[in-house]
Amino acid sequence: MSSYDIAVRGAGAVGRSLALALSRQGLSVALLASPPRGAGPDVRAYALNAQAVNLLRNLKVWDAMPADAATAVSEMLVHGDAHGSRLEFSAWGQCVDALCWIVDAQALDEALATAIRFAPHVTKLPADAQVQATLTALCEGKHSATREALGVNFQVKPYGHTAVAARLVADRPHEGVARQWFRSPDILALLPFDRPQPRCSYGLVWSMPAERAQALQALSDADFDAALNEATGGAAGTLKLDGPRVGWPLQLSRAEALCGPGWVLLGDSAHTVHPLSGQGLNLGLGDVQALALVIAQREPWRPLSDEKLLRRYVRERAVPTMAMQQLTDGLLHLFEQDAPVLRELRNRGLDLVNQLTPLKRWLAGRALGT
């Protein structure tokens, strides 16, 4: 049986990034790959903040992607459920080049896979391979079988909502503007994109109660387009589907223990959030960066399996993860309430925050990792 310093279980974006980050420290890494995704195009799009982009750039992955695989967001408009109520963010107001970058999930996966093939200390193995490793990092996603086998309690709060994702084409340029509608009971996001049509494409993430999502998924493409354009009110032009729609159930979750002797959890294996803020992968890549730094700074005599070492990582990630979970959960519950008084208060709140520039900059900085 082969022996390695670290076994990374799960070869998604978080697992591959961790394998690359640790291999750069000269550690031997076994990357245990999960079964590949089903056939068909991947319609997912990630919203990556500056910290995530810097990590991928340092791993020599970011600049390896095609030029049209990442689109800079220069402006973000958050619409309330009252006419004219909205919150505006701009890269200029934040003094940054971009608020975030919308990234093609398939292109990122391909760039990471290529980097793994050329990483000298990474050995890619089947998910069921038997290996010995000083430390096992679990990056298998929210349904992690290894986490379950360890007996780690995974606290799950189902939202009863489904996220519907698709690729869209508009009849006018997006100008790098991301849009989001917070309305009872749905949340709709349009992420500016350059695929399939440069400057006129969007990634759609539309979350809503499961029954409504099921009905929406059953519509023809033409009827779905009509429902979508009614929901957005023409703010981004006339929108049309370009490809399939996919959906998945939404939940808030967190593992009760994030580490133990010889094992540690990262990404969706450790926590999940509602996609309304686009922070899921950012949190996972933040886990990667924190664990890699903790390992790089460990005492020469301390083994990788030392639980005291791994608790440093847990402490480092506790506050940002909890803060993002509380923020997304609170926003969801605030905007899913349909009472007229609450609707009036939250729309007035959006307008008030929009006028308070320091508060708006602080909020944007927390979400965008700047």
Automatic annotation (TrEMBL):
Chain ranges of the FAD-binding domain: 5-323
Keywords: Monooxygenase, Oxidoreductase
Keyword Ribonucleoprotein carried by entry: no
Gene Ontology MF terms: monooxygenase activity
UniProt keyword annotation of Oxidoreductase present: yes
A Pfam short name: FAD_binding_3
Identification of the protein by name: FAD-dependent monooxygenase
Organism: Azohydromonas lata
Taxonomy of the source species: Bacteria, Pseudomonadati, Pseudomonadota, Betaproteobacteria, Burkholderiales
